[in-house]
Amino acid sequence: MSRLRVPRPVGRPRTTPETVLADKAYSSRSIRTHLRRRGIRAVIPQPSDQATNRKRRGSRGGRPPAFDREAYKRRNTVERCINKLKQWRGLATRYDKTATIYRAGLHVAAIFIWSAR
């Protein structure tokens, strides 16, 4: 998260996104607390086991975390893009030794996908 840069039309890039879209695997208390501290809105569905445990505790379980269903539907576009990128063997297997080479492969794969359009 510290290396994140969100470009703006004018001015310095933002270092915090407005929203984080994630799946149920990222619904832990620590992740939600970290995002809340940084002022980032989380759109993460709550897994059924966490919801059950919260309801079991009654009023001590607290209220359920906010969830924007429409924003979560847009996540499908990102998932399809990632699946296209993973069709490139170098990205799917992660055999690259360094992060810079992996990132360069990601850029090359993105260029191929973009040029095929």
How would you characterize the overall build of this protein?
The structure is a single chain. The protein has helices at residues 29-37, 48-56, 69-73, 75-86, 89-93, 99-116, and strands at 19-21, 41-43. By secondary structure, the chain is mostly helical. The protein has a two-stranded parallel sheet with strand order 1-2.
β-strand number: 2
Question: Percent of residues in helical segments?
Answer: 40-55%
In the predicted model, the low-confidence regions spanning at least 5 consecutive residues are none
What spatial form do the alpha-carbon principal axes imply?
globular
Name the average pLDDT: 84
- Total of domains: 2
Question: What is the count of helical runs?
Answer: 6
Largest sheet: 2 strands, parallel
Structural class: mainly alpha
Helix-strand pattern: EHEHHHHH
Our estimate of the beta-strand percent is 5-15%
The N- and C-terminal alpha carbons lie at a distance of: 31 Å
Going across the major beta sheet, what is the strand order? 1-2
Radius of gyration based on Cα positions: 18 Å
